[in-house]
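Researcher: Here's a chain I'd like modeled. Treat it as a single chain, no partners, no ligands.
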Amino acid sequence: MLGVFTPDMHFVYVLPGWEGFVADGWVLRDAICRMHELKVPHGKVQN
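Model: Modeled as a single isolated chain. C-alpha coordinates:
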Protein backbone atom coordinates (compact mmCIF):
# COMPACT_ATOMS: atom_id res chain seq x y z
CA MET A 1 0.00 0.00 0.00
CA LEU A 2 1.15 3.50 -0.79
CA GLY A 3 -0.27 6.40 1.20
CA VAL A 4 0.54 10.06 0.61
CA PHE A 5 -0.51 12.72 3.06
CA THR A 6 -0.11 16.44 3.75
CA PRO A 7 1.99 17.86 6.59
CA ASP A 8 -1.34 18.13 8.48
CA MET A 9 -1.71 14.32 8.23
CA HIS A 10 -4.60 14.35 5.70
CA PHE A 11 -4.45 11.58 3.12
CA VAL A 12 -4.38 12.88 -0.46
CA TYR A 13 -3.59 9.62 -2.30
CA VAL A 14 -3.95 5.93 -1.45
CA LEU A 15 -2.91 3.02 -3.66
CA PRO A 16 -3.86 -0.34 -2.13
CA GLY A 17 -3.17 -3.71 -3.67
CA TRP A 18 0.53 -4.43 -3.29
CA GLU A 19 1.18 -7.49 -1.16
CA GLY A 20 4.34 -9.09 0.08
CA PHE A 21 7.88 -7.86 -0.49
CA VAL A 22 8.18 -5.29 -3.28
CA ALA A 23 10.63 -2.49 -3.97
CA ASP A 24 9.47 1.06 -3.24
CA GLY A 25 10.28 2.04 -6.81
CA TRP A 26 7.85 -0.52 -8.23
CA VAL A 27 4.97 0.84 -6.15
CA LEU A 28 5.85 4.47 -6.98
CA ARG A 29 6.13 3.68 -10.71
CA ASP A 30 2.72 1.97 -10.59
CA ALA A 31 1.19 5.01 -8.85
CA ILE A 32 2.60 7.43 -11.43
CA CYS A 33 1.52 5.31 -14.45
CA ARG A 34 -2.15 4.84 -13.48
CA MET A 35 -5.10 6.75 -14.98
CA HIS A 36 -5.61 8.73 -11.75
CA GLU A 37 -1.92 9.10 -11.25
CA LEU A 38 0.03 10.40 -8.32
CA LYS A 39 1.11 13.95 -9.15
CA VAL A 40 4.34 15.22 -7.58
CA PRO A 41 4.61 19.04 -7.36
CA HIS A 42 7.43 20.50 -9.45
CA GLY A 43 10.63 20.86 -7.43
CA LYS A 44 9.53 18.39 -4.72
CA VAL A 45 11.26 15.27 -6.06
CA GLN A 46 14.39 14.32 -4.15
CA ASN A 47 17.13 12.19 -5.68
